[in-house]
Amino acid sequence: MKAINKILSAGMGVLLAVSTLGSCTNLDEKLYDQVASQNYYNTKNDVIRATFRPFEHAFWSIQSRHVLNELSADQLITPTRDGWWDDGGKWRLLHYHQWNVEDGGDAQTEWNGCFQGIMQCNTVIEDLETLSPGQFGFSQAEFDNLKAQCRVLRAWFYLRLLDEFRNVPLAVSFNDVSKNTETQVPPRQIFELIETDLTECLPLLTEKTTLGSNAAIQGQWTKAGAAALLVRLYLNAKVYIGEERYTDCERVAQAILNGEYGRYEVADRWDAAFDWDNDACDEVIFGFPAAPGYSYWHYQGDTYWWTVPARARYYLNDSKCKAGDHNTKYAASPSYAPNGELYTYQLGMPVMKFRKYPSDVRLKLYKNLGNSKREGMFVFGYLEYVDENGVTKRVQAPESPYDLYIRDAVGRFQSLSPDRWLPQSSSTLRDGDHNSGWHFVKYPFYTDDDAHQMESDYTEIRLPEVIYSLAECKLRAGKKTEAAKLLNSVRRRNYPEADLGTVLYAPDGTANLDMDEMLDEWGREFFAESRRRIDLIRFDKFCSGTWWDKTPDADKHTEIFPIMRPILSANTKLVQNPGYNN
Q1: Exposure string (b/e) for 2-15, b if CB count within 10 Å is 16 or more?
Q2: Interatomic CA distance for residues 85 and 54, integer angstroms
Q3: How far apart are CA 214 and CA 194, in angstroms?
Q4: Residues pairing with 384 in the sheet
Q5: Measured on CA atoms in the order 512, 515, 518, 519, is the torsion positive or negative?
């Protein structure tokens, strides 16, 4: 089992003197059933466990971010299915950008989860400032690295809050509340805090000096990890603070690619960064360690477990998996109308965006090949399996007795044969069944008898993000050829060698690259990776764009989420975000 994962999981049982920061920034909460920090730090392992305890919370918190950033965007949907998945219309609110202070999807969970993580980080940061490295057998460099870990993690939480709420309080201390604010500070102040923490911590962190050494440092922030967060910050600076920082984004991204912060390289296949042994993948810059019996928050319903049909266990042969049964929360937004006509939306239609280059290996039907191998990313059509009696059957809908034929369309197809369509020329989120929308598998669903079932770590940052960010900066600067070559350095792994002449961007091939294609390519490479919302915002498409069952917003206030009523009630000093009532 991965060593750092054991440290993280052990940290779950260590109750430190940390504030949960419920729904506000009240830092005066009493400690119940917790161990005071002055009595806790007795050994070297105590210090390590304390440092990495906030990382387990951070891993858990990815769920609310995923819901907010994907279901509010153009690529993923949650339609009703034979009466399933209406849930009082909560998924429609996200899809239509109609959230409010009473029902903001997972906005309250995201706010609380991020501030809980921030305060856990603050506690450890201040505790470590009172300790001597020699007392516990650390060198000064080792101890500085530990202190930097929680500062970078705090910056990661703040970057999410800046992205989703923009206007948030400042909370940088657990012990001295005078350093915190009860009300929000300007976004630039949060931006500068993130920038300062990352810049100051970067030289204190570990550097991955050789290829093939990722497993030893998986779950820790490295120099490249902190630098990659700066790339995220600078790429979206115009959105966050109204100031372009593309030059800074380009500078840091190029330094990462030059190996100035460690050695990384793009994997030779698209799924290597998500597979069971991705802790050894040199494409992964930062990931949260995971394994059965420990933590696996990416294998949850709010992330990647409910991305296939409800009875997919028969097809996948994973019915005894610890994560439970599958379900149909997420599907790809449709490319076709219920009558079989192809839509013409510029946005959404992710399957058709993949099909623009039809030999893409990700378009294959997902299959477990045995021996911890897989192929394909999408789940579509009939799903056949052999039952315990040796009879070939097809996966059926969970309650209605019809064989699934999963289509790139939304409608009540039921048992309609594949060559037939419905008479309707349009559909909405209310009109689906269990055939509606291609499903997908990002992290593998290996079988019950596979030794590596659910052993994949969660990949938070991978090298292609840095490459694509740099490419976008160059494209915005008019350096189209340089941008194309950067993108091609990743894209070539997705297509047969014989097709590279037509699928690579010019001058390496004949495909054309422009800003619309750049956004489409972000969507292909990072499909369902919790970032589609901010990419649409950066390209000024989130509120003004049109996609399936989604018309433009009246204005841009939905680019950020409201502060939910319970949060406002808990702290009356907070001011509601523009465009929302109290």
Answers
A1: bebbebbbbbeeee
A2: 33
A3: 25
A4: 394
A5: negative
Over residues 454-472, mean pLDDT: 98
pLDDT in tens, 124-164: 999 999 999 999 999 999 999 999 999 999 999 999 999 99
- Average of pLDDT values for 171-181? 95
Residue 381 burial class via C-beta count within 10 angstroms: exposed 0-12, middle 13-18, buried 19 and up:
middle
pLDDT tens profile 190-222: 999 999 999 999 999 999 999 999 999 999 999
Please report the pLDDT score of residue 29 as a whole number.
38
Distance CA 317, CA 235 (A): 42
pLDDT of residue 2: 42
On whether the CB atoms of residues 60 and 300 are closer than 8 A, the answer is no
Q: Is the peptide bond before 289 cis (omega within 30 degrees of 0)?
A: no
Distance CA 436, CA 78 (A): 10
The confidence score (pLDDT) of residue 9 equals: 35
For residue 348, how far is the Cα from the chain centroid?
Answer: 18
Length of the chain: 582
Reading the block at residue 166, the tokens are 């923009």
User: Which tokens belong to 447?
Assistant: 């079988």
Cα distance between residue 517 and residue 538, in whole Å: 14
Count CB-CB contacts under 10 A for residue 327. 19
| Intervals of CATH 1.25.40.390 along the chain | 3-288
Distance in angstroms (rounded) separating the CA atoms of residues 578 and 344:
33
Q: How far apart are the first and last CA of the chain?
A: 49
Mean pLDDT of 409-436: 97
Name the amino acid, one letter, at 299. Answer: Y
Summarize pLDDT for 108-123 with one digit per residue, the tens: 999 999 999 999 999 9
Rg (CA), the chain: 24
Name the pLDDT band for 289 (thresholds 50, 70, 90).
very high
CATH number of 3-288: 1.25.40.390, 3.40.109.30, 1.10.10.10, 3.90.960.10? 1.25.40.390
Q: How far apart are CA 67 and CA 144, in angstroms?
A: 35
